[in-house]
Amino acid sequence: MELSWINKLRIGAVIALGIVVIGVFAWPLAAPDDPMSPVRSSDIGFVGTLLLLALSFAVGAISFFVAWPHGREIGILAVPFGLAAWAIRSGPMLSLTQSHATAQARQEVVRSLLFEPVYWLLIVAAGFAGVVVAQCISANQTSKPGIAKLQNCLKSNAAVIGLLALVVAVLLSNFFIGVLAQGLPTSAKTPAAQPPRGQIVFAGIAAFAVAGFVVKKFFDLTYAWTILTTALVLPFATMAYYRSDTIQKFAEALPAVYFPHAIFAVLPVQLVAFGAIGSVIGYWLAIQYDYWRQHGSD
Questions:
Q1: Count of C-beta atoms within a 10 Å radius of residue 154
Q2: How confident is the model over 41-79, as pLDDT tens digits?
Q3: Mind listing the pLDDT tens digit for each residue in 163-210?
Q4: Pairing state of beta strands 192-193 and 258-259?
Q5: Which is nearest to 194 in space by CA: 120, 270, 107?
Q6: d(Cα 242, Cα 222) in Å, to the nearest integer?
Q7: Are the CB atoms for 118 and 270 separated by under 8 Å?
């Protein structure tokens, strides 16, 4: 897909659709009572979740036609950008840490967040499903009409090598978030501090862009595999860095602004929203890089 001016307009229209419908219109579904509190999936409720899934599916399907004939490549961006608007408006992780002063309370908070990325990933997946279904309905496959046509289009072509790609993506995204999502240190030995929102936006997008680039370049897999990684980095970091004795030391000796690893300063909704955007960017950067390598000398 060439990044011509018309494709830039299509990308802008899809992003605007996601921000308006999800980021603005659906914001009351997730808005916390306290503006300084972080956005949590537990605050949305069952009915709100069903409505959010339906909106995401509809936004994905509409985005496919808005970005026609590149709806499959561009439409996936709508829902992540909508969630990104929530992620930017959300209060910081620091608010949760400050309200849970003891080591046990902080461990319970992190445990409650472990599987929250899966929730936000399902919202992104609903948008992607809308894109895929819209593509299947519009595809010119006269040999397999109706339900058979849709089932054929939705068949997965993922390979076992995807598991290895997930491992690599988890390690890369975890490392680069740890490097990039850092507040200003007061000394070389100071642990990770709560970064500002802009730093989290940059770190999330950049880290997963690197992972998306590697997954496409070396495993030849789509951005969907890297997006899956957004649900795995927090459990991995918890096993690697969030030990009981470490949290005890942090709770007793350090202010709530400090964390054992920078990833614990990033909310799940931020991980998924910015991670999905970065994954798509990295995927297309890899394609552009290969094109440059092949035709750059022409």
A1: 12
A2: 988 989 999 999 999 999 999 999 999 888 888 999 999
A3: 888 999 999 999 999 989 876 654 556 678 888 999 999 999 999 999
A4: antiparallel
A5: 270
A6: 31
A7: no
259 membership: H or E segment, kind and range: strand 258-259
Q: Report yes or no: 172 and 232 within 8 Å, Cβ to Cβ.
A: no
Q: Using an 8 Å Cβ cutoff, are 265 and 195 in contact?
A: yes
Peptide bond preceding 92: is omega within 30 degrees of 0, i.e. cis?
no
| Length of the chain, in residues | 298
* Residue whose tokens read 């400050």: 98
pTM of the model: 0.84
Question: 175: which 2 tokens?
Answer: 């490392």
- Peptide bond just before 145 cis, omega within 30 deg: no
Cα–Cα distance, 35 to 14 (Å, whole number) = 28
**Distances in Å between the alpha carbon of 187 and those of 115, 248, 260?**
33, 22, 15
Q: Give phi and psi for 266, each to the nearest 5.
A: -110, 130
> How many Cβ atoms sit within 10 Å of the Cβ of residue 273?
31
Backbone angles phi, psi at 259, to 5 degrees: -135, 155
How many angstroms separate the CA atoms of 53 and 238, rounded?
28
List b or e across 88-118, with b for residues whose CB sees 16 or more CB atoms inside 10 angstroms: ebbbbbbbbbeebeebeebbeebeebbebbb
145, burial (CB in 10 Å: exposed 0-12, middle 13-18, buried 19+): exposed
Place of tokens 């680039």: 213
